Amino acid sequence: MPRKLNFHTLLGPLVALLMVLTLLLVSATPAFADDDPPKPIPGLGKVSNADLTSMYKKLRAWYDSQAIVIRESYELAKQFQTVIDFYKKKGRDVTGLETALVRFNDEIIKAEAARVYTNSLFTRNAGFNGFFVVLDRSLAAQTILEARTSLKGTHMDLEEAVRNLKRDYNAWRRWMLGYQN
Amino acid sequence: MNLQKPSFFLALGLVLLALLSACGGNGDAREAQPSATLPPPQVRVGLLPTFTPEPATLTPVPEASGTPTPAPQVQAWPTLDEEQYLLNLIDSMIEKIERRLNNTNTDIRP
Is B20 close to A83, i.e. CB distance below 8 A? Predict the structure, then answer.
């Protein structure tokens, strides 16, 4: 005999469903956890989930900072080309500058390529959810370690590129001043 | 027991929700600790900077003498030629990038 559905019939299952959902939410979200003790992770030491989130955010900031450096490096290369054209028009020997610029461009492209990998790490976001909350500690740690290695490599590449360009540029200037005198 | 099924679930649900909220309350107890408040600033009224407008005084205009004073020369902004401008621009751009790279916080430890 079919029973007529009414509020009283549905109330019990609804409350039960609500309870289950609440329990799932509480257990799945570490933000609701009472404590977050630091536990050892190979390569990172003793860190809590909040520490992992903080590290991940710092890496993201580092990545953004590198984006600015690379953009400024391209602007520098463009300006360098303007200088080369200027002295070429004056009939000066700019071979040293041209060689330095080619090298600088190569190093910037190399740094950009390394950043593509870092970008893929952040896109994958392994171990974290979209709000930087740790879902899997070991995966999160792996993401952090790989991103740190990649960012450090790019950082050193950029430092070397700028250092080389500055050295070659200053050498050319000294040579040009001697040439003018 | 005369309780119907939905009423039983309702009662059970209420009890569990009450338990959950009680647990949650314990978790937030750490954040609810009152923090020490700063004492009010000890500022003496006598030390407060006060603004008293000075009475407008007319500066005496020097009397015109026989020899006319030379007109003040306008300090022109020093202009650079194109070459110097280009070289300085490269210098400043390199310096800016170096500074940004040196100031980057590469230590990610909390």
Answer: no
Residue A24 domain flag: no
In a domain? residue A176:
yes
Burial B53-85 (b: 16+ CB within 10 A, else e): eeeeeeeeeeeeeeeeeeeeeeeeeeeeeeeee
At A31-84, the pLDDT tens digits run 555 478 899 988 899 999 999 999 999 999 999 999 999 999 999 999 999 999
Q: Are B97 and A76 within 8 A, CB to CB?
A: yes
Quick count: other Cβ atoms within 10 Å of Cβ B17? 14
In a domain, A55, yes or no: yes
CB contact under 8 A, B101 and A162: yes
Residues in chain B with CB shorter than 8 Å from the CB of A152 are 106
DSSP state of A133: -
User: Number of structural domains, chain A?
Assistant: 1
Amino acid letter, A56: Y
Farthest-apart Cα atoms in chain A, separation: 111
pLDDT of A97: 96
Asked if residue A48 lies in contact with residue A36, where contact means CB atoms within 8 angstroms, the answer is yes
For residue B108, which residues of chain A lie inside 8 Å, CB to CB? Answer: 55, 58-59, 62, 144, 148
Encode pLDDT of A8-30 as tens digits.
777 777 878 888 887 776 666 55
Q: Which residues pair with A134 in a beta bridge?
A: A128
- A93: containing domain: 38-180
